[in-house]
Specification:
3-stranded antiparallel sheet, alpha+beta
Length: 582
Amino acid sequence: MILFRKFRVLILMVFLVACTMHIMIDLLPKLEKRAAGADSGDSGCQCAQHPGGEAQGWGKQRARSAAEAGWPNKHTLRILQDFSNEPSSNLTSHSLEKITAAAGDRAESFRRIRPSGGKAEDHKPLIGDASWGRTVPAHGVSRLTALFEHPLYKVDLPSFTNDDTLFNLNTDIRLYPKATGNGGWHNEEGNEEEEEFSPTGEVMAESYPNWLRFHIGINRYEMYSRHSVVLDALLKDLASQRITSVAMKSGGTQLKLIMTFQNYGQALFKPMNSSSQDSSGGRQTRDQETPPDFFYFSDFERHNAEVAAFHLDRILDFRRVPPVAGRLVNMTREIRDVTRDKKLWRTFFISPANNVCFYGECSYYCSTEHALCGKPDQIEGSLAAFLPDLNLAKRKTWRNPWRRSYHKRKKAEWEVDPDYCDEVKQTPPYDRGTRLLDVMDMTIFDFLMGNMDRHHYETFEKFGNDTFIIHLDNGRGFGKHSHDELSILVPLSQCCRVKKSTYVRLKLLAKEEFRLSVLMEESLLRDRLSPVLLQRHLQALDRRLRLVLQVLEDCVEKEGYANVVEEEVGGDTATHRTPGHR
């Protein structure tokens, strides 16, 4: 009986302690407000506080605590982001916004801005284009700098209207940084400096985080401008921003992770594949090629191929690949400790070699046998910047007319019908505009990489059919340096059509002064995973470029220059001839 009474007293004491702690936690914000008021000379009076500055100290401390815990505030800027090759991937992924953001929360991050006046409408420069027209000294420049200063890389685009930009700053997007609950959302260091405001009290576009400035810069003609000041800053963010949360992306044959950064930016992480590791599970050995018995649809996806594809796309002046950067990630501190995806967390283990490993969930290579292992807990990977969320910028997915059969025995129609292109040219959207020529650009791009896995492509729905093709998902490129897959060039040899701008740039990159392999090597040196490609892969680029030019020369000899090389109107835009004209 005495023991029972003691037990009841103990339970009562625990209950009282819990109540006391709960009351103290509730009172803490008020106490901190008063302390902050006393420090600023307000003598504890809260009635004179500015409405926009309430609970400054507690709010900032709480936001900082949330960031340190690795879980973003519910008012994140994720609404502007997505990276996918499926139209519904942002709805089916395990991304964090499904848990932390509802429709009402997202609405608080954006407001419609009032038109600022007539002059703002007349002059609409894109963010990041401030360096256009900038001159560089002629001596002591690198080959890459000299290439970008070449007249072929300075062709002006047509003047923009509201219909030519993905977002209109005056009417479509208005960000309130304070609404995120963290005043340092655009500031890596999280210091308490004042935001930069315009005379009207609006946040200046230059104060937006780099991922948002990249989104705002997308237009009908390009993913980013040739001399964008935002691009290098965004690549640096991808390689160095603190990772606050990680979740698996659903779908796909291999594991991909969605990583969220301190500034609420997000990127798709493709880790170094187990096939690209040495026997001890360590760093990638660049000399490995795709096994000869592998089908193209069962090939591994390579993180370094994603990085190299971005640099190749930029050198070709297509600018249709979202920014990608390589990064060495600590699997313990930057993945396991910050993820709230229990399915991912449960797959971590320590290998017999005392390396940290995990395998996640996917349809093919996600098992203990195909685990991703660090050395001991460091792993390479590529980080591709997300495109704007589909809720804000819808994208249309198109089936590639030269899609492969994805079957071990069957062949696609284009593989057996030499006149297949004539049928394609009669079919919308390839019967007008630049779409067929853009597919030829994509064909050349894929052949240079050796990428056979181009089954679909995407465009931004806002721009209709008169816009560029987005070059997503390039991880199966650069698999073989010793083999040139000529079947990738079939669309070019069947159609015998190419943009004049593409043709003259390819000829420029075949010259010794601007040799493609040398330019790629210099460009890839800027990445943190350098060397990204072996010399043999770089040399293969020169060899394949010669093959592309040979196919075009054969077409010119057979059809005539005027029927093969498409003259362009208004910079890099073009208009097709009628379908019956070769």
